[in-house]
Amino acid sequence: MDNITIIVALIAATLRMATPLIFAGLGGVFSEKSGVVNIGLEGIMVTGAFFAVYGTYATKNPFIGIVFAIVAGMAIASIHAFLCITMRADQVISGTAINLFGTAFASFMIMKVFHKGGQTDTVTSLPYKLPKFITNIPIIGNLVKDLNWFVIIALILVLVSSFVIYKTRLGLRIRAVGEHPAAADTMGINVYKVRYLCVILSGALAGLGGAALSIGITPVYREGMVSGRGFIALAAVIFGNWKPKGTMWACILFGFAEALQIKAQSFGLNLPQEVYAMFPYVLTMLVLVGFIGRTAPPAADGVAYEKGKR
Amino acid sequence: MNKLKNSILKGLKKIAYPVCAIIVAIFISVFFVIWAKEDSVFHYFSTLTDLFSVIWKGSFATKRQAFTTLEYITPLIFTGLANAIAFKTGLFNIGVEGQFMMGMLAAGIIGVIPGLNVFIHIPLMIIGGMLAGGVWGSIPGYLKAKLGINEVINSIMMNYIALNIINLLILRTAIGEQRKAATPIIQISAMIPRFNNLSRANIGIIIGIIFAIFVFWLLWKTTIGYELRAVGNNPQGAEYGGINIAKNMIIAMGLSGAIAGIGGALQVSGILHQVQNFVDLPGYGFDGIAVALLAKSNPIGCIFAAILFGTLNSSSKILQLNDIPKQIVYLIQAVVIIFIATDYIVKYFKEKKKKKVIVNG
């Protein structure tokens, strides 16, 4: 392989691996912009990854699989929303409960549906065919050919999210609720409603992220498949300064760390596989060390709002 | 006499909510069992009694099973205590998992050293595990204290880093036997005594109970513990009172990691006798979160919570044989935590009662 082919393949792999993180990261941005910390992203991704496979398996149609993943993500996120917003639970504990529940529920469902432990059957992945005139473009054609629909949807959603948060009335409300809920409340914004909306939306996005990981990359759900990606996405939110575009760049950086694991051999780098497997996690920590303090979370992030309390 | 009665009532009030959470969680999980078996909802109560009797049979029916259950309880006491210390200081050490694994690795390496006396070898292993876990826990503690980085994300990352370091050492260096993908069996001088040869249950559980009492003493009877709890209750207040928050955060995470590491070392010394490579995170630390939350971070409560979750874990094999998916155990655990997280509901009713009093008065 010549150099250009290798680089193109590496970029494509980076984008593919970054996509699940971007979806979950956007979910994190929406949730935290409204003032709810969502540690449960990991569990929601697990749920989404499983239900994408399950929906595809049950209907033989990967598009319905995606719908399953989104609905399941929203359902489990609404538990988190109820606990954090209505019940004013500790958001970290609630998120942990979501993580444990999502993982346990997915394993339970594998047993129930596929009658075996640890792994589902392989299903059909999302078809990705492009017209000839695009794939024939030199270099760019090769790059686009190596992607999948999830990558393209993710990149579009980054732009849409950025627009919604910074250019629309809804976005202004979300930010107001996350920065100063009491002030927002006096202006007639329903704090609870906005927060519910954002947390459930973050569930839909993280569920989609799970789907991107399962039917987008390898069309099977395996226990331990998500392996901390929900938390890496959270780190990306911090690194990206709670902004959709910044989060996307952070996710691409982490995606690159994962892509390196797949593509390292083609560079002639022959480090043990475990070193590459460790790389995304080490990078996440280094990035947090380097960038913390230079970014600022929404002022009311992680604080439950109680109407009428001074 | 009245004083005793009051303190008993107070204690009962404290455990009332966790006990309710367990009962509700079990009632909910019965629906999952019915669903898995595709049974009718009208068989609810027979399914409920079935579930109970299977769990009981699977964990305590014979002497062998009862001892096997102790095997499952032992590590959970340590990981529960580790989480409890962090919770008490207002930190969330989700990295107990990785600290436990590092303790296992340290014990696996120290355990193979030949020619040591039992009385030197076992303490050496425990100290090794303590240091490995302590260091692994202090790193996210340090980063939180000095730079303000969320300890949850960092300690999760360190779980996966620990997993990969251990696999790297076991699979690719002389520490492991490549053929078996595990470290060699430890020396006999490194094995802590087992109760009998029915199971692998060992005196580790007694050490665990001693540690629970030790942590209780540390938190409530010493200056260190007072400072840790002060930081957890009200950091600003603590700082105003002259307590160094950063120092206490590092101490808490280090202590938490050290106890997790000791648990890991005893797991190798008493039960596994070697360290195998990990395909996935083994889950001791995550179970420990459930233990600490259920115990409301009370060290003595951790013993009982560990008994509950250890029993559930221990029954998972027999559940499978009775056509009940063993994952039900983890579902029960998750639902318990969901209910623990909602303890606001208790406060809500209390506040409502108070308001009424004011209105009437």
Output the radius of gyration of chain A: 20 Å
Query: How confident is the prediction overall: mean pLDDT of chain A?
Result: 89
> Low-confidence runs of chain A (pLDDT<50, min 5 residues)?
none
**Percentage of helical residues of chain A?**
over 70%
The level 1 CATH classification of chain B is: Mainly Alpha
What is Rg of chain B? 22 Å
Quickly give the structural class of chain B.
mainly alpha
Secondary structure: number of strands of chain B: 0
- Give the largest interface pair and sizes: A-B, 43 and 49 residues
Query: Which structural class fits the helix and strand makeup of chain A?
Result: mainly alpha
The number of domains of chain B is 1
CATH architecture of chain B: Orthogonal Bundle
The helix fraction of chain B, in percent, is: over 70%
> Biggest sheet of chain B, open or closed, and with what strands and sense?
none
The quaternary structure here is heterodimer
Measured distance between first and last alpha carbons of chain B: 33 Å
